[in-house]
């Protein structure tokens, strides 16, 4: 079932990506660290040696947070957990797949674009 909560409570952008991609977003001012006893970051750097479980943990963490509106997800990492990304059907947070520095964006693999094309009957 789609998440139909008040979108005004969601004000942060998260990023799941390689170090270069995340650094680029942070340098542009996209990134937030909550204060308090349980400080949380709105980004996850996934390294080459990290396994699929690390990607899934970041995905789960950001898709369940109530303050995240958009997740920018490097497409090559999304491919590693494609089944999870394709099954995610909540309205919030929106998952936007982006290219990495070393890999191009592949339209046919993007789960959002697949849904758009399906709705258009293509």
From TrEMBL:
Gene3D superfamilies: ATPase, V1 complex, subunit F (3.40.50.10580)
Compartment(s) of residence: Vacuole membrane
Source organism, top-level taxon: Eukaryota
UniProt entry tagged with the keyword Ion transport: yes
Topology term for the membrane: Peripheral membrane protein
GO molecular function, one term: proton-transporting ATPase activity, rotational mechanism
Keyword Transport listed: yes
Signal peptide: none
InterPro entries: ATPase_V1-cplx_f_g_su (IPR008218), ATPase_V1-cplx_fsu_euk (IPR005772), ATPase_V1_fsu_sf (IPR036906)
Keywords annotated in UniProt: Hydrogen ion transport, Ion transport, Transport
Known function: Subunit of the V1 complex of vacuolar(H+)-ATPase (V-ATPase), a multisubunit enzyme composed of a peripheral complex (V1) that hydrolyzes ATP and a membrane integral complex (V0) that translocates protons. V-ATPase is responsible for acidifying and maintaining the pH of intracellular compartments.
NCBIfam families: V_ATP_synt_F
Family: Belongs to the V-ATPase F subunit family.
Subunit relationships: V-ATPase is a heteromultimeric enzyme made up of two complexes: the ATP-hydrolytic V1 complex and the proton translocation V0 complex. V-ATPase is a heteromultimeric enzyme composed of a peripheral catalytic V1 complex (components A to H) attached to an integral membrane V0 proton pore complex (components: a, c, c', c'', d, e, f and VOA1).
Designated name of the protein: V-type proton ATPase subunit F
């Amino acid at each position: 079932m789609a998440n139909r909560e008040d979108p005004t409570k969601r004000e942060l952008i998260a990023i799941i990506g390689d170090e270069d991609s995340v650094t680029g977003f942070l340098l542009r001012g996209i990134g937030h660290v909550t204060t308090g006893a349980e400080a949380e970051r709105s980004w996850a750097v996934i390294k080459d040696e990290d396994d699929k479980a690390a990607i899934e943990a970041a995905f789960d963490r950001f898709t369940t947070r109530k303050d995240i509106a958009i997740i920018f997800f490097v497409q090559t990492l999304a491919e590693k957990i494609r089944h999870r990304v394709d099954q995610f059907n909540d309205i919030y947070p929106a998952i936007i797949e982006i290219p990495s520095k070393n890999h191009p964006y592949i339209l046919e693999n993007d789960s959002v674009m697949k849904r758009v094309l399906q709705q258009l009957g293509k």
